[in-house]
Design a protein that fits this description.
With about 1100 residues, the protein is mainly α. The protein has a two-stranded antiparallel ribbon. Strand 1 and strand 2 form a beta hairpin. Helix 27 runs antiparallel to helix 28 and helix 42 runs antiparallel to helix 43. This is RNA polymerase II-associated protein. InterPro entries: Ctr9, TPR-like_helical_dom_sf, TPR_rpt. Keywords: Repeat, TPR repeat. Pfam families: TPR_12, TPR_8.
């Protein structure tokens, strides 16, 4: 552990002396147990006696045992000087190793880094651990040089020193080899230092069983060894989940070494962790917390520069509210730790303390540093988001939490705390973010609710889930009032039931955050830049530069330098060349040696078509830093792009020969140059063919070597795929030998194999060249449509339609497709791409030749097809283009340039062919006009016929509609009249019924007043009483009855009356039926179901 001085040699045995000879007869005995802390007298005595190196080393070690490092260093230095003065420098190598070990001992108590903006733990005047290790390495190398010259290289002391140094510098693999070398030279393999060193290395490599065995071996060989191997035994057991045994090992270590800080620290951490177990009683947890606190304080007092002890104690002090002391401990942790997790904890606690003390800027900086070290650290992300919310940076807080949750989702580290925070942010309107994100807020709250079984969960009401939030953090989330209020607000307009369930868990909304100026850091801006959000990245970079001015000069300089460079790169991506140029110049004014800025300046000059200026600038940079491989890689690229293949080849081979023969970029560049030269060679002689074959083979060898160093190197894989597709190791389509009988099948097979490779390369190499090569393979397989898709993807996605090569590939594919399909429209598309390429590169006369060729070929194609498959407009356009092609061929054939990229004879032959073709154009035009005239006449006649038929049909339809309308009007009129007549009849019936009732009433009254009768002789003979009718009266066949029946029955013929089933009179209204001709009309009146029992009624 850092800050541990227990690396000094083991305690001395009592009663030890050393004899120093002065001259031949005088011997002075020095008692090693009674050494004076001031070695001045002893140094004079040793110098006078011209002692051997073993005496100097022994005395220096004795002083070191007692912790007097300064005195030990003085003795070792004096001994080295004395031996050099006496000419015995060859024997001074052990003293160099001793001095190196002393420096490494000082390094263990030195800070790993220095916080120049630290407020409590000031370490600016101290040297860093790296400086001590650098001095130790320098001293050790000097000793190794002396040992090499004296033939004493490779002794145990030097190998142990090397191993300890490598372990301190975190070169664990090298340290393991050094310790193994020592153990292999030991007869029994029992070198304690080597065993302990190897065990520590294996522990860091997580090989816990083997490390445990080694620590146990050390304990068996040396029970009193320092550092105590019981500490390592306990750590291994703890990592292997044997917690009780690990605790027992640490307790035993504390018994043996009561002042051992490491054992106290580990026992304290174990007690603190145990006190958090909620299954224990409150008293047990309190006892564990107090015991852990005492252990931690004891460990920190034993070594106040122990970062782990400071980190643990900081948490305890922070809980007590002692902010200044907690900040000092947090800064101590940051400055002295060399473990990433402990460093992250230190930054987090420093951020928490700064936040509590109101220093938001410092807190934000600390949380950002913690997040940079461990992007998936929960506390770092939440702390940073809290600060961003408090500063009003709501969009940035959303990005922080969303990025964390997206990354943590794959590693099953999704935190409910982070989800609740992010959901709360999404639930509120944020400037720059669409409010529709409340759907995401609902989703996150649903996940949290389901996790804890809250009433807000969707499934809670249906499956009867019960809350299962047993942990303290879970309870705090489940009992968070604001969260439930937020959920209720999200659902208030859509789901009243869920809103109500949430409101039952909440009681009010509280607290609002203060607004402040937003502050962003450089690494967040870089992430935005990599995601292609250049506007956001630019704003963040500018903000970071402004904020850096408020820091101290040393920190501000480094931060502003890096941020300014990133800002200049953002300007470039946004097309702000002038602003980017100004930023680079400002950067170089501050640091003239900033190589990357000069490289970007050179690239901008090259983009402005100033290759000579760019070349001169690159030469200047190379002169100052010739060993910079990134610079050499860019210079190689620049030479290739500048069409300087020979200098590029010489330069890249010099890089491989003199700097790094395994440099991947140089290997791929060398392969590309070899392949390009071999491919472009036109030497058809046997020697030339053989040289081309060797060039292709060397290119393939370079690609294979690069892949052997990095099997995921997509550029090398793509290069080999090109070799396969073009059959460069075979006949190259007949260029390197005679064609085989199955050459076509082989070409298709090679293209298929290359496509498989390109498809895999596309997944890892985001570059347009991959799509271009895939297009080549599709073209070789005559799949022109898929080739066009690949070329267009490359041109549009990567080159913005400004790459001449991609445009020419599209032109070629459309030309081949048009030739195959005999399509003039597709041929015109090919012509458009060729014209665009010529517009971008008007110096290339080969493109001009292709334009003329396409125009002539289009006319030839149209002249060769039937008139039915072409149009007069297309034919006239093709003839016009062919006429223009004649002018181009004539100018190309007459070109007097010494070298042209085409054949003048072929251009002249094309011109002559075009003349003969154009002479036949008038005939074709006449034929096409006649054909289109006849076709048009037929079309007009057919169109007129269809028009007449359509008019006739429309007339018939109008007549039909008019007839339907008239019939509907007549029917409506008849129904109206029938309804009026029915109403009139109803009124008549009602009046007759009233008269009938009055007449009956009068008759009844007359019967009551009639005399009972005369004498028997005078009275007339009584008529027999008629029998009551129990049936229904039949209808008479009078005029009125016939008319009534015809009107209401709905039948024109007479029908027998049906039996009535209703007790009331019913009038049937059938309007549509007519009365029988000549039928008598009679109204039928029935007011009751039965006829009244009255003689007068029947008379």
């Amino acid at each position: 552990m850092n800050g541990d001085t227990s690396r000094s040699p083991s305690p001395p045995a009592p009663g030890r002396t050393i004899d120093i000879e002065l001259g031949q007869h005088e011997v002075i005995t020095v008692e090693l147990d009674k050494l004076d802390p001031d070695p001045s007298d002893l140094l004079e005595l040793l110098a006078e006696g011209q002692c051997k190196v073993s005496i100097w080393t022994r005395l220096a070690v004795e002083y070191w045992r007692r912790g007097w490092l300064d005195a030990a260093e003085r003795i070792a230095q004096a001994g080295k000087d004395a031996l050099e003065a006496s000419g015995s420098e060859a024997s001074s190598a052990p003293l160099y190793s001793l001095l190196a070990n002393i420096q490494m001992t000082r390094a263990t108590s030195a800070p790993k880094l220095i916080l120049y903006d630290a407020r409590e733990d000031i370490m600016r005047s101290e040297r860093t651990r790296e400086e001590y290790y650098r001095d130790a390495a320098q001293i050790f190398n000097q000793g190794e040089k002396i040992a090499t010259e004296s033939g004493r290289l490779g002794n145990t002391l030097s190998m142990l020193t090397r191993g300890v140094m490598q372990m301190g510098m975190r070169a664990m693999d090298d340290a393991l080899r050094s310790f193994n070398s020592v153990l292999s030279q030991d007869a029994n393999g029992n070198n304690i230092v080597a065993l302990i060193g190897k065990a520590k290395v294996l522990y860091t490599q997580r090989d816990f069983p083997q490390a445990l065995k080694l620590f146990q071996t050390v304990l068996r060989l040396s029970p009193n060894c320092q550092p105590d191997p019981r500490i390592g035994i306990g750590l291994c057991l703890w990592s292997m989940d044997h917690k009780a045994k690990a605790k027992a090992a640490w307790q035993r270590s504390l018994e043996v070494n009561p002042n051992g800080g490491a054992a106290s620290l580990l026992l304290g951490l174990e007690a603190l962790n145990a006190s958090k177990d909620e299954t224990q009683t409150q008293e047990e947890r309190k006892t564990g917390l107090l015991a852990g606190t005492r252990y931690i304080e004891r460990a920190f007092k034993a070594n106040q520069r122990n970062s782990a002890a400071a980190n643990a104690l900081c948490e305890l002090i922070l809980l007590k509210g002692q902010h200044k002391m907690a900040l000092k401990l947090a800064e101590r942790t940051i400055q002295f730790t060399d473990i990433k997790t402990v460093l992250t904890d230190g930054y987090i606690r420093a951020g928490r303390v700064s936040h509590a003390m109101g220093n938001q800027a410092a807190a934000k900086r600390f949380f950002n540093q913690a997040k940079y070290g461990q992007p998936l650290n929960l506390m770092a992300n939440i702390g940073l988001a809290q600060l961003q919310i408090k500063n009003g940076e709501l969009a940035t807080a959303v990005n922080t939490l969303d990025s964390y949750l997206q990354q943590a989702q794959t590693s099953r580290q999704r935190s409910p705390e982070a989800m609740v925070m992010l959901a709360s942010l999404w639930a509120n309107p944020i400037p720059g973010i669409d409010f529709t994100e409340k759907g995401k807020a609902r989703e996150l709250y649903d996940q949290v609710s389901k996790t804890f079984g809250l009433p807000d969960a969707v499934a809670h009401a249906t499956n009867g889930n019960q809350p299962h939030h047993t942990g303290r953090s879970s309870r705090r989330i489940a009992e968070d009032i604001d969260m439930h209020v937020e959920i209720a607000r999200l659902w208030q307009n859509d789901n009243g039931e869920r809103m109500r369930r949430a409101l039952k868990e909440a009681w009010r909304i509280s607290q609002a955050t203060k607004q402040s100026n937003p502050r962003l850091v450089n690494n967040v801006a870089v992430l935005e830049y990599l995601d292609g959000h250049y506007d956001a990245a630019r704003s963040m970079f500018e903000t970071a530069i402004t904020q850096a001015s408020s820091l101290d000069s040393s920190t501000a300089d480094g931060l502003s330098t890096t941020t300014l460079y990133n800002l200049a790169r953002t300007y470039e991506e946004q097309g702000e060349e002038s602003m980017a140029r100004d930023a680079y110049e400002k950067l170089l004014d501050r640091h003239a040696e900033y190589v990357d800025a000069k490289i970007r300046q050179a690239q901008m000059l090259a983009d402005l078509n100033k290759p000579n200026d760019a070349h001169e600038l690159l030469k200047q940079v190379l002169a100052s830093e010739p060993n910079n491989l990134n610079l050499r890689a860019y210079y190689t690229y620049f030479l290739v792009q500048s069409n300087l293949p020979r200098p590029a080849k010489e330069f890249v081979f010099a890089t491989l020969k003199d700097h790094d023969r395994h440099d991947l970029y140089s290997l791929c560049a060398a392969a590309w140059i070899q392949y390009h030269q071999a491919r472009e060679s036109r030497d058809a002689s046997p020697k030339g063919v053989e040289e081309r074959r060797r060039g292709f083979q060397r290119a393939a060898d370079f690609y294979q070597k690069a892949l052997s160093k990095d099997s995921t190197l997509a550029v090398a894989a793509q290069g080999l795929a090109i070799v396969i597709a073009e059959d460069a190791l075979g006949t190259l389509g007949g260029a390197l030998g005679p064609l085989a009988h199955d050459e076509g099948m082989k070409r298709f097979q090679n293209a298929r194999e290359a496509l498989d490779v390109f498809a895999k390369v596309r997944e890892s190499l985001n570059d347009g060249s991959v799509y271009i090569n895939m297009g080549h393979c599709y073209y070789a397989r005559d799949e022109f449509d898929r080739a066009i898709e690949s070329y267009e993807a490359a041109s549009r996605r990567y080159y913005s339609g400004q790459n001449v090569a991609a445009l020419l590939c599209l032109c070629r594919s459309y030309y081949a497709k048009a030739t195959r399909d005999q399509s003039f429209a597709v041929m015109n598309t090919a012509l458009q791409y060729a014209q665009k390429a010529y517009h971008l590169n008007p110096q290339d006369k080969a493109i001009l030749y292709n334009i003329a060729m396409i125009q002539q070929k289009a006319a030839e194609m149209l002249l060769s097809i039937a008139p039915t498959k072409r149009s007069l407009k297309d034919l006239e356009l093709a003839i016009q283009q062919a006429t223009h092609a004649q002018k181009l061929f004539a100018s190309l054939a007459a070109d007097k340039s010494p070298v042209v990229p085409y054949s003048r004879d072929m251009a002249d032959q094309r011109r002559k062919y075009g003349d003969s073709m154009l002479r036949r154009c008038d005939e074709h035009l006449a034929t096409q006009r006649q054909h289109e005239t006849e076709a048009q006449a037929k079309l007009d006649a057919a169109r007129q016929k269809r028009q007449r038929e359509r008019e006739q049909q429309e007339a018939l339809e109008r007549a039909r509609v008019e007839e339907l309308r008239r019939e509907a009007e007549e029917l409506a009129e008849e129904r109206r009249k029938a309804r009026e007549q029915a109403l009139e009849w109803s009124r008549d019936i009602k009046m007759e019924s009233d008269e009938e009732r009055e007449r009956k009433a009068a008759k009844k009254a007359n019967r009551r007043v009639r005399p009972e009768g005369g004498s028997g002789d005078e009275a007339p003979p009584a008529e027999p009483r008629k029998k009551r009718r129990t049936g229904k009266l039949k209808k008479s066949s009078g005029v009125e009855e016939g008319e009534e029946e015809a009107l209401f029955s709905g039948d024109e013929d007479e029908k027998p009356a049906k039996k009535r089933t209703s007790k009331k009179r019913v009038v049937r209204d059938d309007e549509d039926e007519e009365e029988p001709t000549g039928a008598p009309r009679k109204k039928q009146i029935k007011s009751k179901e039965y006829i009244s029992d009255s003689d007068e009624d029947m008379s």
